[in-house]
Amino acid sequence: MSVLLIEAFYGGSHKQLVDMLHENIEDSAVYTLPAKKWHWRARTSALYFMQNIPESPSYRVLLASSVLNLAELVALRPDLGRLRKVLYFHENQLIYPVRKAQERDFQYGYNQVLSCLVADSVLFNSTFNMESFLTSMSSFFKAIPDHRPKDLDCLIRSKCQVLHFPIRFPDVTRFLPEHKLRRRATGSHMSCATGVPQDISSHGHLSVPASSSSEASSTSEEGPVPSEQQGAVLTQEPQRVTADQRGPERQQPPSCPPQGSHTGPQPQPPLHIVWPHRWEHDKDPELFFRTLLKLKERGLRFQVSVLGETFTDVPDIFTEARRDLGDHVLHWGFMPSKEAYLAVLCSADVVISTAKHEFFGVAMLEAVHCGCYPLCPKALVYPEIFPAEYLYSTPEQLGKRLQGFCKRPDVVRRHAVKVDTGLYSWEALRDRFRSVLSAEGHSVTEQAQARAGAEGSSARGSLSLEPTGVR
Q1: Cβ atoms of residues 441 and 447 within 8 Å
Q2: For the chain, is the Cβ count within 10 Å smaller at the N or the C terminus?
Q3: Cα R_g (the chain), whole angstroms
């Protein structure tokens, strides 16, 4: 088997996927473009790859992300059109958020639809991504003044499937504080203060736990940039607020002592909240900081680490929030290394998402892997991954949950999160990727159905999103 991996926007999750496949699939070749100027990659990368991918009789399968206009590429290179063509969607342009509806560029979504029509197999990183794409198609094409295409979603659906983005979860044992190590080792919800098994209800109050599974191991103004890019050009230096800057009351006291060593009530360290997302409006930092400032106004004790990548235009709210939160800030800015990033996640108690859009959410799953309690909107992809107790419907609900956790951080610290991150690991998904990238792919019947649908539409095209220089 010879697999041709093409990435027009080689950065973030797009880069991670291509690298993982290249490392684990024998006889694969990679051609990429750098992860910048997304709009131009979507418009013109097919021409670049037409000229820079050499012809080879050994290629059997082609995989590209949905940034590339696959229809253009296979029209320009008929030899590539004869391969089994697999398209992977990290995000879709039919519902990607824009400030105003009239600002949506029709061409990007149109390219993705054409790419699906010429592909043999179309993969999505979540059910939310797939269904939002397919069900939005008819309304999307209403922008055409007349002679609109019909039933394209029916032609495409037969070749679609969900194949989650595979995450390589590292061993973070060395970074975990004592209470997380103890919780991981015992699988217990025991309070180190009382020894009483307790859990957290959907309103943040204490309740008798039901059975739970044991704990398992970002759109730019430039375009749909993967959520968690560690390693792009930064616009500011990461900051670590030191203990001296915070004052003695902000220094982390040790976690609760072992049972049997009572020396009176021990002070709990303040709740540590982490927000590990891109610094852009689609992640709704305004809601996040507004919620924290209300906690501060109520005199509640907490620390916050605001991580994630910055781009050219950072929303003003970040400068304002840094000033207004003052000594509540523990870490501020993009971390200098993946290890430093994981260390902060391991030290945190609660990870928050306030996203207005999310097609998968690597950062939230990484934080859960590091022992954080997740709080996510009851929308987008989150109900697909997180049980109801970790979801909030309104800003008021988010604020109420955090108020309860600030008052009783021990409740969060003894909770084993009921999310099996192993389901999204490379180890769990590897065989499915190998199967779909085999020359045979699906059954002969499924392939025939997909080809019949594509031919019936008379459209030939496929798109993919993620670049970085030819390798």
Answers
A1: yes
A2: C
A3: 24
Residues 435, 209: Cα–Cα separation, whole Å: 40
Tokens for 243?
Answer: 């203990």
The DSSP bridge partners found for residue 329 are 304
What whole-number distance in Å separates Cα of residue 163 and Cα of residue 132? 15
Q: What domains, with CATH codes, occur in the chain? A: 3-166+426-457 (3.40.50), 173-423 (3.40.50.2000)
SS3 call for 393: coil
Say which amino acid occupies 194: T
CB 20 within 8 A of CB 168: yes
The whole-angstrom separation of Cα 11 and Cα 17 is 10
Q: How far apart are CA 287 and CA 289, in angstroms?
A: 6
Closest CA to 277 of 163, 358, 177, 196: 358
Contact 300, 331 (CB under 8 A): no
One-letter amino acid identity for 319? T
Q: Which of 29, 34, 43, 40 is nearest to 14 (CA)?
A: 34
How far is residue 68 CA from its own chain's centroid? 20
- Say if residues 114 and 71 touch (Cβ distance below 8 Å): yes
Structure-block tokens of residue 370: 């590091």
- pLDDT by residue for the chain (471 residues), tens digit each? 599 999 999 998 999 999 999 999 989 999 999 998 889 999 999 999 999 999 999 999 999 999 999 999 999 999 999 999 999 999 999 987 665 554 568 999 999 999 999 999 999 999 999 999 999 999 999 999 999 999 999 999 999 999 999 999 999 999 999 999 998 887 643 333 323 333 333 333 333 233 333 333 333 433 444 333 333 333 334 444 443 333 333 334 334 444 444 455 567 899 999 999 989 898 999 999 999 999 999 999 999 999 988 877 899 999 999 999 999 999 999 998 999 999 999 999 999 999 998 999 999 999 999 999 999 999 999 999 999 999 999 999 999 999 999 999 999 999 999 999 999 999 999 999 999 998 776 543 344 444 444 444 433 333 333 333 344
In terms of Cβ atoms closer than 10 Å to its own Cβ (0-12, 13-18, 19+), residue 227 is buried
449/460 Cα distance (integer angstroms): 15
